[in-house]
Amino acid sequence: METQKQFLEKRACQDERVRGRAQEWLKTVGRRALQSLAPRKSLQAEPHGSEIAG
C-alpha cells in the first residue's frame, strides 16, 4: 500500500498539468494571504476633520 502511494505521488509530481495547477493555486493563496494582512480602513471611522466641526 505504501509503495502504491509513493508511486502515485511521484507520478502526480511529474505531470505538467498538475504542477501548473498547483502553481496557480499557490499564487491565489499568496494573494489572499497578502490581502488579509493588508491594513484596512475602519468602516466606523469618522470623516477627516469631523473633530473640528462643532
Outline the structure in words.
The model has no long low-confidence stretch (mean pLDDT 77). The longest helix has 22 residues, at 16-37. The protein is elongated, with a radius of gyration of 24 Å. It starts with a helix and ends in a 17-residue tail after the last helix. By secondary structure, it is an all-alpha fold. It is 65% helix and 0% strand.
Radius of gyration: 24 Å
Strand content: under 5%
Q: What percent of residues adopt helix (DSSP H or I)?
A: 55-70%
Shape: elongated
Instruction: Summarize the helix and strand pattern as letters.
Output: HH
Low-confidence stretches: none
How would you characterize the largest beta sheet?
none
DSSP, total strands: 0
Structural class call reads mainly alpha
What distance lies between the first and last C-alpha atoms, to the nearest angstrom? 76 Å
Mean pLDDT: 77
Number of DSSP helical runs = 2
Keywords:
2 helices, 54 residues, mainly alpha, single chain
